[in-house]
Amino acid sequence: MNRFFVNAADVHLPTNEITIAGEDVKHISKVLRLSEGDLVEVCDGEKYGYIGKIKRISKQEVLLSIEEQMPLKTEAPIEVILYQSIPKATKMELIIQKTTEMGIKSIVPIITSRTVVQFKDDKDKEKKVERWQKIAMEAAKQSKRGVIPSIHFPLSLKEALQKAQENDLNIIAYEKEASQGIKGLLTSLVTENIKKIGIWIGPEGGFEEEEIDLAKDKTIHSITLGPRILRTETAGFTVLSILMYVLGDLGG
């Protein structure tokens, strides 16, 4: 069954109806060729999922009658934020797609000393974020997520470090870290109190030592991912997989 996302305000419980608007209208009518009486899944992006039956299709909206309401059960018990140094080419798109499938809550693109990607201006950044957000939405639909991960406006490392102080735990992957791994770190912590975690991944050339020192000053834990050097598009998957297995819902 096809899944769509709406705002909570588009769910009208008094009339037992849901309104779908925007690009999904054309997708429903022209691409999927659905019609009155067909069933679709809808998520409000917050607490509930719905089975809706198509009542009416117009150029502006699709009106559904609510056939069933159920609480969302596809979101992990921990909130993981990926602070990803922006990589070259389409690597960022791959990172967004796969981490969305694995349960990431949000992604903050960061600009570091060795970030190669350059933006012309804020408008260029906004265009990129719009593209990345669309990729997250499509991945969320495909993987039956109940929430679409939010893709933030690109930040400098210092800006991101400041905002990350609200997280319960922050870990930064660093190839020169020799002693502390994720397993050892988690063993030393009271994990029951950890609900919001930040993962920090460097660009193709890695973080500079000064950036690692800056992160440590903000109580971010430096970790090793083993004796092999992982690509920037692989490192985030690896850390997220481990966290979701140990603290989340990966593996049941």
UniProtKB/TrEMBL annotation:
Where does it primarily localize?
Answer: cytoplasm
* Record's protein name: Ribosomal RNA small subunit methyltransferase E
| CDD domains in UniProt | RsmE-like
| UniProt-listed Enzyme Commission number(s) | 2.1.1.193
Q: Which organism is it from?
A: Clostridium formicaceticum
According to the entry, every stretch annotated as the Ribosomal RNA small subunit methyltransferase E PUA-like domain falls at 21-67
Q: What does this protein do?
A: Specifically methylates the N3 position of the uracil ring of uridine 1498 (m3U1498) in 16S rRNA. Acts on the fully assembled 30S ribosomal subunit.
Listed GO CC annotations: cytoplasm
Tell me a GO biological process for this protein: rRNA base methylation
InterPro entries from the xrefs? Answer: Alpha/beta_knot_MTases, PUA-like_sf, RsmE, RsmE_MTase_dom, RsmE_PUA-like, tRNA_m1G_MTases_N
Cite a single Pfam family from the UniProt record.
PUA_4
Return the SUPFAM superfamilies for the record.
alpha/beta knot, PUA domain-like
Give the catalysed reaction(s), semicolon-separated. Answer: uridine(1498) in 16S rRNA + S-adenosyl-L-methionine = N(3)-methyluridine(1498) in 16S rRNA + S-adenosyl-L-homocysteine + H(+)
